[in-house]
Amino acid sequence: MPGLQSITPELAEKLLAKAREAASKAYCPYSNFHVGAAILVNDEIFTGANVENASYGLTICAERTASFAAVLAGHKRFDAVAVSCVDVSDDQAKLHPEMLMPCGACRQLLAEFTDPETVILVDRAGSYQLKDLLPNAFRLVSKPSE
Ligand code: THU
User: Fold this and answer.
1) What is the pLDDT of residue 143?
2) Under 8 Å CB-to-CB from 103, ≥6 apart: which residues?
3) What span, in angstroms and rounded, lies between the C-alpha atoms of 120 and 83?
4) 40: Cβ below 6 Å to ligand 1?
5) Ligand 1 pocket, 60 CB below 6 A?
6) Residues 106, 110, 113, CA angle at the centre, nearest 5°?
7) What SS3 state is found at 53?
8) What's the rounded mean pLDDT across residues 52-61?
9) Which residues are marked as active site?
10) Is the distance from the beta carbon of residue 103 to the nearest atom of ligand 1 less than 6 Å?
């Protein structure tokens, strides 16, 4: 089944609430920037939060831990995704909405399991489709011949 191209306001709010809730699980002693993500697959919601490390580059974003939870439960196609950066104040969010957006690496990771039209809800920034966030995503459709 292709990812959802649109989503009811009720479902959007439910998914965003799960993302916000998941942010409380973040391990982020270095940035103190809690991020939560929620992924809808059929009637199930998988959540994730960012997990940092003293070796900073090892940090894993919320979108990726949520994706891995869904994949490890056996799912390869996501219906919709929500992300929430809960530590950004409303004033900051208005001034710098980019603080709410998924990073580039996570956009590519999500492209693996979504369709270009799949809804990506960004808390307090709006509803996007994957293709808005990552036009011309890299996809390995077939392996190049050796
Ligand atoms: N972070 C995410 O979890 N997702 C993103 O899309 C952007 C950034 C996390 C990584 C790091 O723990 C903290 O936010 C600050 O960059």
Assistant:
1) 72
2) 61, 63
3) 8
4) no
5) no
6) 155
7) coil
8) 98
9) 63
10) yes
- Residue 4: which pLDDT band, with cuts at 50, 70 and 90? confident
CATH class entry, domain 4-133: alpha beta
The span from the CA of 72 to the CA of 65, in Å, is 10
> What's the CA gap between 136 and 131, in Å, rounded?
7
pLDDT confidence tier of residue 96, bands split at 50, 70 and 90: very high
CB of residue 51 inside a 6 A radius of ligand 1: no
Check residue 1 and give its pLDDT. Answer: 58
Number of H helices, E strands in the chain: 5, 5
Q: What is the mean pLDDT of the chain?
A: 96
Q: Whose CA is nearest to atom 4 of ligand 1?
A: 61
To test ligand 1's pocket by mutation, which of 25, 35, 122 has the most ligand atoms within 8 angstroms of CB?
A: 35
User: 100 — phi, psi (to 5°)?
Assistant: -100, -10
Q: Two tokens at 121?
A: 């809800």
